[in-house]
Amino acid sequence: MKTLRLLTFAAVLLALFSACKEDTSAGLNDDGSLCGVFAVSDSTWVAFSRGNLQYQPSSATWRFAESQKETLGRDNENISSSYTGWIDLFGWGTSGWGSGAEAYMPYSTSTLSTNYMPGGDTSANLTGIYANADWGQYNPIENGGNTPGRWRTLTKDEWTYLLNQRQGASQKYGLAKIDNVQGLVLLPEGWTLPDGMEFTPGFENGYKTNRYTGAKWSKMQSAGAVFLPAAGYREEYTVFTKFQGDDGCGFYWSSTSLSAPNCNILFFGKSAVNPNNFSKRHFGLAVRLVTPTHLLD
User: Fold this and answer.
1) What is the mean pLDDT of the chain?
2) pTM exceeds 0.85, yes or no
3) Are 130 and 138 in contact, with CB atoms under 8 Å apart?
């Protein structure tokens, strides 16, 4: 069984890295996924979307950010059902599907976390009978294949496997800065550092290492690297973007419920990277979706 798993993994790597080489200028597949492949369990590999998820309330349109470093910051303070701009910080499970939660629309601003429970169930995850509460499962994404069911949110266990348990995990992530945007870099399976580039894993140096210009980052992306920008969070109509002095933090939803008020998240800042943190459901956090590698065939 172990031999079969290794052979399957090798086949997936070959397919994905062939895709990377087909568009070395951008590192993108036609469906808006990045070309790197990431193990999120012993038998599951995914590709990340080209950028964070965005939504335009007035037209009910979903899209991915055009670049990995793009965030909308205080634009999210304009959140409303008629807002003609774009938002990228969402309460948990707010895909727009009528899940049985009181707050389920992407522009929901209720500050009562129990309003964000699908079916009113404390233990309900964004999977199974509530899978449509996952943004990527329910919605067509304009520059992401434009087909429902193509994307999904990682579970708590998958975020944990990615950061802590996959082969060489501790060497495959690090805090970084692209131009003036702080964030977290994730390196794919079979990673090879591009010529002339440097990468220091971990968070011990904060955002002082792994500083890339846009041109240098394009080399990293073309080799399969992912960047999660420190997008901050929203509470009702207020966005908080800076923490720990002058440094930003990232808060990314998982699809896993923890308790009545809380769900699990990936958190990172200048002194920590924690894939098993948690947040109140009503906070507006960033969403970065993944697609199963078999959909890239």
Assistant:
1) 92
2) yes
3) no
